[in-house]
Amino acid sequence: MSGSLLSGLDPAGPIGDADLFYTVQSGADAKATGAQLKTYAAGGLIRFSVTVSANGLICALPAGAAMLMIALQEIAGHTVNCSLGTTSGGSELLSAISVPGGGAPVLIPLDALSQPDSWVAAQNIFLNSASWGLANVTGRLWCLQ
Fold first, then answer.
1. Phi, psi (5° rounding) for residue 5?
2. 47: pLDDT strictly greater than 70
């Protein structure tokens, strides 16, 4: 098998054949926390996808999971600087990065991310900005459990 583990992942792609290899969680499913958090099979590749227009929870990273990649795409035509943290307003996982308005997804690879401490318990991941304006950003996060 040639290429990297992530070479076949299309950050903007529709649900299709690739989903045989990972579970897509979006909206309320991705934001589930505590007792609501779904149980995933160990060793699975999981993708979360959530759109936000203010600092907000994009997923509850399952216990024992490691983030692989994040894609951020602004869909309303307004450039915005976004960061990732374990709290609303936090930036300890990824410092502010410019996401162009209405542009292609900005891919953020593993080496640009700081891993949260999710080895013992689920860890909330927030997409944040100091100034959202009229921006709407879809955040897609891939993790391996």
1. -55, -35
2. yes
**pTM of the model as a whole:** 0.75
HEC string of the chain? Answer: CCCCCCCCCCCCCCCCHHHHCEEEEEHHHHHCCHHHCCCCCCCCEEEEEEEECCCEEEEEECCCCEEEEEEEEECCCCCEEEEEECCCCCCCCEEEEEECCCCCCEEEEHHHCCCCCCCCCCEEEEEECCCCCCCCEEEEEEEEC
**CA-closest candidate to residue 128, choices 57, 29, 25:** 57
> What is the average pLDDT value for the chain, to the nearest integer?
76
d(CA 45, CA 49): 14
Q: Where are the domains of the chain?
A: 21-50, 74-136
